[in-house]
Design brief:
Elements: H1 3-18, E1 32-36, H2 47-55, E2 59-63, H3 70-82, E3 88-93, H4 96-103, E4 109-115, H5 126-130, E5 149-150, H6 154-161, H7 167-175, E6 180-181, H8 182-186, E7 198-204, H9 212-221, E8 225-229, H10 235-238, H11 240-253
Parallel strand pairs: 1-2, 1-3, 3-4, 4-7, 7-8
Antiparallel strand pairs: 5-6
Helix pairs in contact: 2-11, 3-4, 6-7
Length: 255
C-alpha cells in the first residue's frame, strides 16, 4: 500500500471514530451520557432526550432498572457505567436520583445531573424523605402495595405525573407503568456521590410528585448548579430540549 493510501486509510479511521464527515461534530468535554429512569416508568421515556443528545454527537446509554431494590438498580447502573469507553455524565430522574447518588461514586463518573430527582444524603431513602410532606403539598396518587409493589392510580396519573404531556402519551405512560418495589423506596444511600462530584439540578416548577421546594432544598445542599424550568414531573418527556441542555452543560463543565 502506498504512503498516500496509508494516510487515507488512517484518516478514515479517525473520521469514523470522531464522527467527522457524518455531519455530527464530536461534543466538547465528556461524550458519554448514562440516563437512569425513576419509579413507575422505564427507560423509554428518555427517547426525546436521547434523540437530542445523539444528534449532538454524544454516546448515550439508557439503563433499564428493574426497580426491585436500590441495590439492584445501582448494580444495573454500575454495569452501564463500566461499559463506557471513558468519562461519564450520570443522569437520574425522580427515584433515579437515589440510584445515581449511590452509583455515582464510580471513578468514571465526572458529573451528576438530577432531573426533578431525589438527591439523597447519607442514610436517607425515598421513604424517609417523603415521610413528612410539607403542609399543602400535593399527595401523589400512590395505591396500596400489592405483593410489595406500588403503582399510581391510572385515572390520576396524568394530572400528578405528566400534566404537560400530550393526553395520548400520558395515557400510555399510565397504562405501561412498571410496578415499583417498596424495597426500592426503603433503600438508603451510603455515600452520596454529590459530595464528591460536580452536580447539576433541573427543578420542575410545576411538579406534583416531588414538591419544587423539596427539589430546591436537595439541590442547595448538594451545591448543585440549578436550572428551573416550568414543567411537570415528566419534564424529561415534555421538554427534552431543556433536560438535554443541562446535560450538555454538565458534560462541558465536567473537565
Amino acid at each position: 500500500m502506498t504512503t498516500n493510501r496509508l494516510l487515507a486509510a488512517a484518516a478514515s479511521v479517525v473520521m469514523a471514530a470522531t464522527g467527522a464527515g457524518s455531519g455530527i461534530a464530536a461534543p466538547a468535554g465528556v461524550k458519554n451520557v448514562v440516563l437512569v429512569h425513576g419509579g413507575f416508568v422505564d427507560g423509554a421515556g428518555w427517547k426525546g432526550v436521547y434523540d437530542v443528545l445523539k444528534k449532538d454527537g454524544y454516546n448515550v446509554t439508557i439503563v433499564q432498572n428493574p426497580t426491585t431494590s436500590l441495590a439492584d438498580d445501582v448494580a444495573y447502573t454500575k454495569r452501564a457505567i463500566a461499559a463506557q469507553d471513558g468519562p461519564v455524565v450520570l443522569v437520574g430522574h425522580s427515584y433515579g436520583g437515589a440510584v445515581i447518588s449511590e452509583a455515582g461514586t464510580d471513578d468514571k463518573v465526572k458529573s451528576l445531573v438530577y432531573v426533578a430527582a431525589f438527591a439523597l444524603d447519607k442514610g436517607e431513602s425515598v421513604s424517609t424523605l417523603i415521610a413528612n410532606p410539607p403542609a399543602g403539598a400535593p399527595v401523589p396518587p400512590i395505591l396500596p402495595p400489592v405483593d410489595g409493589f406500588l403503582s399510581l392510580d391510572k385515572a390520576k396519573f396524568a394530572a400528578s405525573f405528566a400534566a404537560d404531556v400530550d393526553a395520548e402519551t400520558a395515557a400510555f405512560m399510565a397504562d405501561s407503568q412498571v410496578p415499583w418495589s417498596v424495597n426500592a423506596l426503603t433503600g438508603a444511600v451510603t455515600d452520596p456521590a454529590w459530595k464528591h462530584k460536580r452536580s447539576f439540578y433541573l427543578v420542575a416548577t410545576d411538579d406534583r410528585m416531588i414538591p419544587p421546594d423539596a427539589q430546591r432544598m436537595m439541590a442547595k445542599r448538594a451545591n448543585a448548579r440549578v436550572n428551573e424550568v416550568p414543567g411537570s414531573h415528566a419534564i424529561y418527556v415534555s421538554n427534552p430540549a431543556a433536560v438535554a441542555d443541562l446535560i450538555k452543560q454538565a458534560a462541558t463543565d465536567a473537565e
